[in-house]
Amino acid sequence: MQRIYEPENLMEGELLQHMLASEGVKAHLVGRDLLGGVGELPVFGLLALSVEDEHADYARELITAYNGALPVPGEEPDSFPDVLVC
């Protein structure tokens, strides 16, 4: 298993985990259960997505493509120009 990405929060982690699953890559969201200890544990570095070694490069490519996605012109809401809303 390799840690391939550290999401900013649980919502991003779960979103990426499901996106990877839709592409056939099983990912584990490490640290999900530690979030209840925030205040006594360090805030950063608790969450990570991990995948099997043979899927690591492909999973990184998918996450990079997802993070680099731009809204389709004309599809973004007026109140959030240039923001991708899923």
UniProtKB/TrEMBL annotation:
Pfam families per UniProt: DUF2007 (PF09413)
Domain DUF2007: 1-65
InterPro entries per record: DUF2007
Name of this protein: DUF2007 domain-containing protein
Originating species: Pseudomonas spelaei
